[in-house]
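2024-03-11 09:14:02 DEBUG pipeline.ingest accepted 1 chain
2024-03-11 09:14:02 DEBUG pipeline.ingest length=128
2024-03-11 09:14:03 DEBUG pipeline.predict start
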Amino acid sequence: MANAGDDDELETPVLRPLVWIGNARRNIQAFPEGAQKIIGDELQLIQFGGMPKDAKPFKGVGSGVFEIALRYDAEAYRTVLAVQLGEKIYVLHAFQNKSKKGIKTTKHDIELIKKRYAEAKERAEYEE
């Protein structure tokens, strides 16, 4: 016999919408097909409230900014997103990391991410 509270356990997950900032979507579409699939799956996991094992906080930009770091075919791909700006998830930047100093993100990419984070914050305030 079912308990009255059982309905709470069967709630339909809410899929949070993605908002693409700048050319982030086009950049992901330029990744190899396998890398696109993995990034897409990880973005969907985040949309449903999960967090991929290879996502980590992206420091120095703002609270709730994460980076998905992917190694694929000996190349490094990065996707940076903001998850704590209202109900939406803002994909700020996606790029192939070509840094000559290990995995360090270039200054140009960091500045672009900061600029797009500010834009995402503004859009989130406007949309609330």
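2024-03-11 09:14:41 DEBUG pipeline.report The first helix runs from residue 6 to 9.
2024-03-11 09:14:41 DEBUG pipeline.predict end
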